[in-house]
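Running this now, will post back.
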Amino acid sequence: MPDLIRRFEWEDALPGLRSDEFVVRVTDESVRAYREAVSDRSPLTPPGYIFAAAPQRRHALMASIGCRAPEQDPDEPRSTPYVGSDVRFYRGIEAGDTVRSITVFDRKFERGGNRFVVFRVEASDGDGAPIAEYDYTCLWDRGAATAQSARRRTAPDDRTGIRALTGTVLVKAETVETIAAYGRLPVGRPNDWMSTHTNDEFARTAIFGDTVNAGVATVGYTAQWLDLVEKPSVLWDGGRLESRALTPVKAGDDLQITGEKRENAENAGDRVYEIVVVNQSGVTAFRSVATIPARV
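Update: finished.
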């Protein structure tokens, strides 16, 4: 019998599409598994755990109109990797909590010959009170000019001088094992999902030519740095974390995470940090901006 499920395409991406509800019961074991995957020793639930408790299930949204994700296509699977995220936190979670989440298609746009899609994940507790929400941007199609430019970009990023402005540096050694550990976290993906984090053969044919870490894992690294200069899990209480991947993080990368406090033109009472992840070549691979409300 022929397979009648078609691949989700750019034209199918219409604002308002929604997934089914996903329910996660937070346990000590699930939080521990996350901490181990990102080597986080925080005594509280790390803010980056939100991506495990309320995962971005774009495949479920696409299934709502009878389609499969490009990563699920049996004939020509392709990756639609993480580009950036913007998380708004409302309250912390701990073992015993129930997290209910849905994924909504927010928008799509084109820039520099590339196509991007943005999903929004809304997470609430068992009583319907908001826990967090985040936008998650994926690269849908990469323009040829952008790909050539990325291959030529080998010079160190001039923002690496930020390391001289802070005494706090968090070091991460990304390995095959650390990438795989995060990729094994249960996030509701189907068994036919082709992952650039855990499937070596698929990763070699995908956009980056090798296995890469999950972008949201690096988001977690930047949140860990913030915990070192503020208090553990400070973001949960009304904070915001805007992040952007600039170049892929691969096995063998030695990362230094550091940052600086910035002036906040919008609200002088808030504390704002720019956090950068610099690899062993001196290239800034990732950047986050964290905002902590004045009341915290």
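The chain has one domain: 6-292. More later if anyone needs it.
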